[in-house]
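User: Teach me something about this protein's shape.
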Amino acid sequence: MGPKPSAYALFQQIEGSVVPFAFDPEVPFDTGENLGNSGTEESANVFCSPAFNMRPAAEAEDLPTHANRYRTIWISDIHLGSNGCQAPYLLDFLRHNDSEYLYLVGDIIDGWQLKKGWYWPTAHNDVIQKILRKARKGTRVIYVPGNHDEGARQFCGLEFGDIQVREEAFHTTLTGKRLWVVHGDLFDGVIQHAKWLAYLGDSLYTLILMLNRWFNRVRSRMGFGYWSLSQYLKHQVKNAVSFISSFERVMTDEARRRQCDGVVCGHIHKAEIRDIDGMLYCNDGDWVESLSALVETVEGELKIVYWTALRPIPPIPPMNTAAVKQHAVETGTLR
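Assistant: First, the predicted structure itself:
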């Protein structure tokens, strides 16, 4: 049996797609006034609430002159309303990237976590405001709800603040490829047939995300870049790898049934573009672990972008430890 790697060696691990620069991955937590007990609100009501018009977004200025411009951007699994959401990074991404089409591919708001305990810091509000502003300025925004914001599915076919809500969508690229856009939870057997197990898994996943945040806080202080401990652990588990492979094949089979050339989805928090039996499989990743998006360039090329690899983000103020602990106790992730 070979020698075990040292703790220092573990902190040195950097995924190939991530440029090693130091920044603090912590989301700025409020002093505690945003942590309440009104956990009965539905995610759909949060997204469509007039309360979002009460204060302007912090990113309300026009796009900077150095903004990247794409034809299409797909983002999913933001999980606003959970303390795992990396809202400041997403806000920075939205500020420096513009597109003709913006697809919100599910789990934008984490209704499961909001039911356990109310958590909505200013940065989460600013993300909603920024998306609404993009829609007002001419970006065609299509929102496809997922399992964590399934309450919004009752509004499919309607529009809210220039945002179209759809159960599924179809997008044709400049190269002529017809893509089926859907979150993917409806083709997840655990979600459909053992939802109690999905809720249990979500609680464990939330705990892992908390460990991931502390892990990267230590890495930042040591001068290392962001590296997702939670993704590393997930991909080391044989059953998780097997589930991901099965999910990808199911999604491409369903896209073929719909006479599409490929699928764009989220749900499993693993950004990827690959060919599966002649069908294009695209997953835009997430904004709790990988901080990734799928984009279509103005030339029609599809690619995954990792915001931590493209732009060094300024340090974020240290989080309020007491507020985090209070929220963890309320939501059952710390007892």
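Now, about its shape. The domain at 27-331 is CATH 3.60.21.10 (Purple Acid Phosphatase; chain A, domain 2). The longest helix spans residues 195-221. If you'd like, I can walk through any region in more detail.
User: That's plenty for now, thanks!
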